[in-house]
């Protein structure tokens, strides 16, 4: 069987478990400097591909775990599902209920983006998920919110463990398959139209569920969207599981200075196992098991403020208001922006905005597509002041001439999206047998929806109720979601 490490894309493995609660935080350039702290010197280890940063096995860092360990006399560690900056996630066998679970073990403590706030890395996620769970007790939900509630992960267990590196909070959840980005865009594989519609509708319903409960997710993108494993996996013995998915891939850990390992670090590192499918192998039954994961950065705007400075996730996915108004509070529109980009990614061959090294570069891509006139007046003045026309065009065009040029491209958002839609969605899908393409009516409805969701001005951006009631959801995605529910379909 081929080694898991043969994969060229380490990001696939890295992000698989970040969706269980890791936060990739890029510090904005205008964020205030943190107070000076003494730098601790930790041992260095041999470099091993596709595993967590070994230098983080120290006090305040990861908990050392080895295969066969039994946590809380109940959860036997079978393999690794993945890792993130703030946690490792393990596939375990629940000895009490004889089923497989995901055990997420957080680092023992972390410092939030505000210097005076020290919190347990798993506490926010656990609190959010518990709040959502309590809000559903005794509630009669409509079809959309009912579907959305199924896409919110459930906490099966919560506890602390004491180890050589400190006290670690742990969450137990159902195990999930590979994230949607890793099995689609990463592999240049495409979801069939029926499947893509169900995935998009399910994700929209999940966000509707969150917003109806006063919660902003804060980090929506396809690496935080997974599908749960079918319950049939619980019927597999440990030996049958290994026969199906391969033996754990382990690599010995050595200190660079040749000294013996301490109890703070495991004796070997485990490469995360792959449980995923390629996008073109997904069925509608798989799509119905969609899970929106990673609530470590979620918040309730009614009781907590999160500003643009605290915006997390890939720079190319962050909403423009996080750049232009970094001190102002983010809210539900920031989720809608990321949701729109995620829906695009479900259908597309490539992301609408490419990887960026700075928020400024990401904004430049957005303005290149939507035009300067898409910005609120206050943002436009700020951008023009910071990016003189002489620098942009290499000439001495007057401000009036620049305004004339930009007004020529002041088309509506759906029209602006037509060219990238044709190049990145329609034509690539046309070339793949069985992928399916958009009909003309569905295309217009789809672009109208994305146009409303991707308004640069958050005050003009659609809210989630408008998305639920738009023509594309009512006429295409919604009916696909309801007609293919597992109890009424053959799961093809």
TrEMBL record:
Q: Does the keyword Amino-acid biosynthesis apply?
A: no
Listed GO biological process terms: regulation of mRNA processing; spliceosomal complex assembly
Q: Which SUPFAM superfamilies match?
A: Protein kinase-like (PK-like) (SSF56112)
PROSITE patterns found in the cross-reference section: PROTEIN_KINASE_ATP, PROTEIN_KINASE_DOM
Which UniProt keywords are present, listed alphabetically?
A: ATP-binding, Kinase, Nucleotide-binding, Serine/threonine-protein kinase, Transferase
- Organism expressing this protein natively: Xylaria arbuscula
Q: Does the keyword Cytoplasm apply?
A: no
List the molecular function annotations (GO) for this entry: ATP binding; protein serine/threonine kinase activity
* Coiled-coil residues: none
Write down what this protein is called.
non-specific serine/threonine protein kinase
Describe the reaction catalysed, as an equation: L-seryl-[protein] + ATP = O-phospho-L-seryl-[protein] + ADP + H(+); L-threonyl-[protein] + ATP = O-phospho-L-threonyl-[protein] + ADP + H(+)
UniProt enzyme class:
transferase
Domain Protein kinase stretches = 75-473
Annotated residues for binding of ATP? 104
Q: What is its EC number?
A: 2.7.11.1
UniProt-listed Pfam families: Pkinase
